[in-house]
């Protein structure tokens, strides 16, 4: 038949069925359940009891949660500010053709191959005031990286950055490689220096990559959890307790799964709002073009 | 984008699907009569002894027992979710006290009183004060399943000799020692302050020595205004004085208990004292054998407090860990048989002693005296036999949410971010 022939080349809606099913089963359903639980008093030992908006009231007054939220954004912001320039510069540099760069960048990407748990434990041991190797360094060695409430946030930023800069570098590297060489040739003929070329050609060409990388970092910072759990466990005191960790401790150590679900809902909403806002600001088309092939 | 969203959802699922997650990946739930499943903590040496006892049981029984082990924190989560679902084990390891009481209140734990009554010779084998940890509202819900682990004060004899001082017998001695060791350039007390349970040991003992065990009993029984008893504030203030005096140095917040932590600070002589559970001895033996073999690891009970109401023989810590049987068990008789046959048997006791444990059965003085570490083991055994009371660690004795809040308040107090008054107010308002 005519219609079926014309549709032959395009996958029918049914092709998406497995995906939709999985999404419903593993995303929509649990999310709905969490939303329901956020209105209950739920200890896994007993059946959930409906308590109305009690958990939400409690969240409003829970200064620990608000502090944790602030810390979450703070870590996210600093991480972005630290990682973006470094990843951008190294990415652009390693996109070059020279052989030594290939060797160096393959070394540089090593953290990508390590599990988060290994990275967190590595730095936990390294920063130990008594037994870590950083304690033997001059000046730096006097700092209590994990035990000083004023320093610990930066220690977290350092560990997270150490882990993720290579990933973002990879993004920038591959994007920088797609910039047509003729642009640089023309610029050189016009007498533009390297710095000028970077700001006039490279950076504008990489703007969508900057956006993608930023969205990944900001939304990712909302879910950073494993690194902090293993590196500091939110300590000292609560100095590095971020919101996802606050949720975990409430739910799995205090066994207040109902209230923890309330925090989970807030996290989901924040993540969704943030990524929506960023897409809105930067335009859907730019997002789409960057998503291609992923 | 995709990655991030999955992680976000995973976090949500983590909390939302507690029960279903726990149900996943279980090889057959309880309710199966042909086998009994035993859940315990992952601990290589102990697990070997447990496996041996299970093999002995399986030889003489047509029911097959099997052991499943988990790491400490995941175990607590898993157990709680499993007890509320169909995937509960038949026998589970626990710490007794308020924690077990919650499970009992939820109707998940089997009453073992009749088992003890029918087997009086079995009951009489256990040290009575330890057996009471499994006693909830007059009924027994657990059988002691491991060695006793009170908290005691370890010290570095070499460091004490260098300073020309003796281990503390009273609180005033302790405060004076803090000053002495500061002058010597030694951290007076090693503290693994990145983990709140190490800090907890201090307030547990101070309150007990100062006011007696009744004050905390009122708190754990959930009596109205129990946190606001004046003795609690008094004890917290004494602790604050110790912290402010620099008793723990100023770098404790980043020290952990695991390798490279507080134990090695004591062994290296950077610190003079360390308040810790008696597993510290085994730990030191493994991590710093030369320190123990040189005879430099000293141990004394927690100092008395002059004029305090608490008996200086009182102990805090883990009286013993327990095995309890679940209501959901498909074959509770077999589970009970296993406990009665194995938990006081000669083989079990001998093997525990061999790995350095001090079992909580009576009349094993001679056996302990023959071990490699007889001095420590015999001292510890006498300490427990002669203790007037043995308080279970507060974080195990309180409901989980209250315990979590208390530990948070305690770390804040140690960091100077919370006052004793603020601590009491927060706990009273919870």
Q: Can you describe this structure in just a few lines?
A:
With 294 residues, chain A is mostly helical. Chain A has helices spanning 2-7, 17-37, 54-61, 63-94, 99-108, 110-113, 116-126, 152-177, 181-189, 194-205, 207-223, 226-231, 243-253, 257-282, 284-291; strands at 40-41, 49-50.
Give an account of the 3D structure.
- The complex is a heterodimer of chains A (294) and B (430).
- Helix content of chain A is 70%, strand content 1%.
- In chain A, helix 2 (17-37) packs across helix 14 (257-282), helix 4 runs parallel beside helix 8 and helix 4 runs antiparallel to helix 11 (207-223).
- Chain A has a two-stranded antiparallel sheet with strand order 1-2.
- Chain A has 15 helices and two strands.
- Chain A is globular and about 75 Å long.
- Chain A has a domain at 79-122 and 149-242: MetI-like fold, CATH 1.10.3720.10.
- Chain A has helices at residues 2-7, 17-37, 54-61, 63-94, 99-108, 110-113, 116-126, 152-177, 181-189, 194-205, 207-223, 226-231, 243-253, 257-282, 284-291, and strands at 40-41, 49-50.
- The model of chain A is unreliable at 287-294 (pLDDT under 50).
- By secondary structure, chain A is mostly helical.
- In chain B, the strands form three sheets. In chain B, strands 7, 8, 9, 10, 11 and 13 form a six-stranded mixed β-sheet that branches.
- Chain B is an alpha/beta fold and 430 residues long.
- The relative contact order of chain B is 0.17.
- Chain B is built from 23 helices and 13 strands.
- Chain B has two domains: 35-148 and 319-362, D-Maltodextrin-Binding Protein, domain 2 (3-Layer(aba) Sandwich); 149-317 and 394-428, Periplasmic binding protein-like II (D-Maltodextrin-Binding Protein, domain 2, 3-Layer(aba) Sandwich).
- The model of chain B is unreliable at 1-30 (pLDDT under 50).
- In chain B, helix 11 packs across helix 22 (400-415), helix 13 (230-244) packs across helix 23 (420-429) and helix 22 packs antiparallel against helix 23 (420-429).
- Classes of the chains: A mainly alpha (294), B alpha/beta (430).
- At the A-B interface, helix 2, helix 11, helix 13 and helix 14 of A face helix 1, helix 2, helix 4 and helix 22 of B.
């Amino acid at each position: 038949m005519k219609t079926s022939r014309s549709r032959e080349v395009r996958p029918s809606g049914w092709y998406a069925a497995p995906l939709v099913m999985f999404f419903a089963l593993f995303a929509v359903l649990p999310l709905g359940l969490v939303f329901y639980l956020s209105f209950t008093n739920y200890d896994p030992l007993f059946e959930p009891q409906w308590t109305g908006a009690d958990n939400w009231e409690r969240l409003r007054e829970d200064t620990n949660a608000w502090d944790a939220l602030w810390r979450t954004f703070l870590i996210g912001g600093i991480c972005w500010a630290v990682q973006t320039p470094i990843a951008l510069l190294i990415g652009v540099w390693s996109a070059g053709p020279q052989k030594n760069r290939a060797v160096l960048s393959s070394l540089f990407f090593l953290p990508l191959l390590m599990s988060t748990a290994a990275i967190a434990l590595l730095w936990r041991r390294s920063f130990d005031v008594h037994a870590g190797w950083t304690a033997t360094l001059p000046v730096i060695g006097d700092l209590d990286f994990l035990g000083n409430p004023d320093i610990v946030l930066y220690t977290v930023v350092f560990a997270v950055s150490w882990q993720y800069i290579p990933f973002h570098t990879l993004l920038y590297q591959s994007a920088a490689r797609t910039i047509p060489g003729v642009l640089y040739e023309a610029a050189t003929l016009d007498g533009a220096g390297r710095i000028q070329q970077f700001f006039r050609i490279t950076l504008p060409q990489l703007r969508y990559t900057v956006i993608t990388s930023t969205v990944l970092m900001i939304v990712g910072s909302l879910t950073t959890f494993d690194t902090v759990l293993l590196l500091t466990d939110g300590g000292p005191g609560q100095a590095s307790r971020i919101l996802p960790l606050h949720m975990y401790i409430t739910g799995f150590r205090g066994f207040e799964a109902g209230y923890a679900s309330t925090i989970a809902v807030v996290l989901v909403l924040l993540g969704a709002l943030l990524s929506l806002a960023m897409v809105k600001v930067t335009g859907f088309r730019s997002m789409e073009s960057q998503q291609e092939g992923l | 984008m995709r990655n991030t969203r999955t992680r976000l959802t995973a976090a949500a699922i983590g909390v939302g699907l507690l029960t279903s997650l726990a149900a996943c990946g279980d090889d057959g739930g309880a309710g199966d009569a042909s086998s009994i499943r035993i859940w315990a903590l992952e601990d290589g040496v102990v697990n070997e002894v447990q496996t041996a006892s299970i093999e002995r049981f399986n030889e003489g029984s047509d029911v097959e027992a099997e052991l499943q082990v988990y790491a400490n924190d995941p175990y607590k989560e898993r157990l709680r979710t499993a007890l509320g679902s169909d995937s509960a084990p038949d026998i589970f390891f626990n710490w007794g006290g308020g924690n077990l009481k919650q499970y009992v209140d939820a109707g998940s734990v089997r009453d073992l009183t009749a088992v003890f009554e029918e087997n009086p010779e079995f009951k009489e084998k256990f040290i009575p004060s330890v057996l009471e940890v499994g006693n909830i509202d007059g009924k027994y819900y657990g059988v002691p399943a491991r060695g006793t682990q009170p908290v005691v004060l370890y010290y570095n004899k070499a460091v004490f000799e260098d300073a020309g001082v003796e281990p503390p017998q009273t609180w005033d001695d302790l405060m004076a020692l803090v000053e002495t060791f500061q002058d010597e350039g030694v951290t007076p007390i090693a503290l693994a302050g990145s983990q709140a349970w190490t800090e907890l040991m201090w307030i547990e003992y101070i309150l007990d020595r100062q006011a007696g065990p009744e004050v905390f009993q009122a708190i754990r029984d959930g009596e109205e205004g129990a946190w606001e008893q004046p003795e609690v504030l008094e004890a917290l203030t004494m602790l604050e004085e110790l912290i402010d005096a620099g008793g723990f140095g100023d770098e404790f917040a980043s020290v952990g208990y695991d390798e490279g932590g507080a134990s090695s600070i004591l062994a290296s002589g950077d610190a003079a004292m360390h308040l810790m559970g008696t597993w510290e001895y085994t730990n030191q033996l493994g991590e710093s054998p030369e320190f123990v073999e040189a005879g430099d690891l000293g141990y004394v009970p927690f100092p008395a407090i002059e004029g305090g109401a608490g008996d200086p023989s009182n102990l805090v810590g883990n009286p013993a860990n327990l095995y309890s049987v679940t209501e959901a068990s498909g074959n509770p008789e077999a589970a009970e048989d296993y406990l009665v046959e194995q938990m006081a048997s000669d083989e079990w006791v001998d093997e525990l002693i061999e790995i350095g444990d001090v079992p909580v059965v009576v009349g094993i003085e001679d056996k302990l005296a023959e071990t490699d570490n007889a001095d420590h083991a015999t001292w510890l055994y006498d300490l427990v036999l002669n203790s007037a009371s043995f308080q279970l660690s507060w974080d195990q004795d309180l409901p989980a949410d209250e315990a979590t809040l208390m530990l948070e308040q305690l770390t804040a107090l140690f960091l100077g971010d919370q006052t004793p008054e603020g601590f009491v107010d927060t706990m009273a308002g919870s």
